[in-house]
Amino acid sequence: MIPLSWYLIFAAALFSVGLFGALSRRNAVAILLGIELMLNAINVNLVAFWRYGDVMVLAGQVFAVIVFAVAAAEVSVGLALVISVYRRRNTVVADELDMLKW
Amino acid sequence: MNFWNDPLKVAADWLTGIFVGWGMNDVFAQVLVAFLGVLMLITILMVVDIFLVWIERKVVARFQDRIGPNRLGPFGLIQPFADIIKLMIKEDTTPDGADKVVYNLAPMLSMMSVLILWAVVPLAPVMLGVDLNAGALFIIAAGSIGTLSIIMAGWSSNNKFSVIGAFRQVAVMVSFEIPMLATLLIPTIFAGSMGMNAIIQSQDIWFVLLSPLAALIFLIAAIAELGRAPFDLAEGESELVSGYNIEYSGMKFGMFYAGELLHAFTFGGFWAIFFFGGYRFFGLEKVSPFLAIAIILFKALVGYWVIMWVKYTVMRIRIDQMLAFNWKFLTPVAFVLVMVTALMNALLRDASSWLFITGMLLSNVIVAWISLEFVRSASKKERERVEGVKQVVEAHH
Amino acid sequence: MTAEQIIFLIVAGVTLASALLVVTTRNLVHAALWLVATLFGVAIIYTILNAGFIAVVQVVVYIGAIAILFIFAVMLTRRELRDNTPQLNKNWWSGALVAVLTFVGLAFLLQGWSGFSKTAAAIPSGFDAVAELGNQLVSPEAYVLPFEVASVLLLAAMVGAVYVAFTRK
Fold it and tell me: Does 1.20.120.1200 match the CATH number of domain C1-83?
């Protein structure tokens, strides 16, 4: 039987990888990729806590489903913003989008 | 438990016994037997696939008033083997600048997305890979792997036409997934479960009688998902050469082609499972699992024949018409139908079965009638608009 | 070591390796495809956790919709950023430091928690998680409000995405 710790360590590692991606990629699409990894890591934790806690209490799975919805919403709006920015400024590099930085 | 009542279990027990007799670990022997079972299913499917090529060619020939393959073997039955040998010995080309790994992975994923569907197909009450409790959703999940394979094929070929073809195909597949998922919810509502076996077991009355509109929408969405005519824009020869698979030759193309045929056959099977009682036929399935397999394969063939019938009679429509048809007509109708069905199901749950059937059928007819009225007024407006444009153009001349 | 543990280790290793490739590959289409591999790995992890429904939804939502959307977005925005320019910004080392510190900190915090190496109880027979999940999502005593809020969120996101990406003529 797999102890809970394995899942938690795996999720923490996945979260850190995603965090690295979100912090250090230049391309805005790639930053969103990193955020997806982080959301997935959280979902692994939620489902693992459901399985290792009281199985009858489905809060973990319900939260996972809602994270799916949030991830879908985040990606659709995020990518729409990236495409819109690309149309206006012809770049998707996050560093170059500095109109607000004077 | 004798062989005629549960052949798979008997065979598996026998094989496990042999492997354990060789001094193998018990768990390992079971895993090996399961693996052999999967291998056998895939092999049978591939052989069926070869004959599907023959069936497709024969049927299209009859639709077009021809005879079809008739030279090689009786009724041309050996023809598909000759086709395969031709595909095998053809030069295996890879275009310049192609992304080699992705390019070679795409046909495999395409075939895999079809084969994986058979994991949840119940061939008989006791013969199915897994009785997944999210079986209906699994179909959509496998379909998304197919979508992925198409975009991978289109992008990695390093060809503008294949990218455009892939974009179109993916746009169609992603959008028609929605009405398909909505109509899959209707058998789920009736059966109270998403598991395939539970859905079949609860069809004392075929679901097509309870919800003919759902069966129709599922068929339309399935045809679009398959990328067959009238939704085969990805391969609009006159504009795109051949869609996402232009650059593929030999057996790699063969994988896409065989995958498409098997996919159509499989969806004929799913149509039968969800709306026509699957392996059930007036209690005949209880006699022997072999009879049940024969029944479901026959029903799948009938479904496949309907898909072919549509393919070879209906003309291809434009991409904008297709997406408008999906988003403005099919998806809303499917959602309304799900809501109406759920409501009627809750109202009529305790009613007698005759009242239940009549109520369901009536609600379906009403939904269909109202949506057709909408289509009529919309198409009238569209026709007036097009004719107005024509008159303006003629006036300019 | 049981078979389950070996499977978990292999899947987790492959998933983490593909996740690393997602954040380091130069070619962004490849990064999106590695994301698909990662998502598959996570789906397998869900299956090991006996959450079949979540695994299937993961494939439908993430691979069928989100990954495809990413590939589309990469293709639509590729003109400027060629694959040979650096893909990491100049502060990438501080990002790496933060990530490593997060991992070490999380591992340290978790390791001190009493339930850390808990093992799972067997799932009671006859318990259908999917049916129960479906009931709870629409039950007024359970999660109907978050469920409805999520659907409103999705609707708002759809309207927002169409509005933002729409080209005015």
Answer: yes
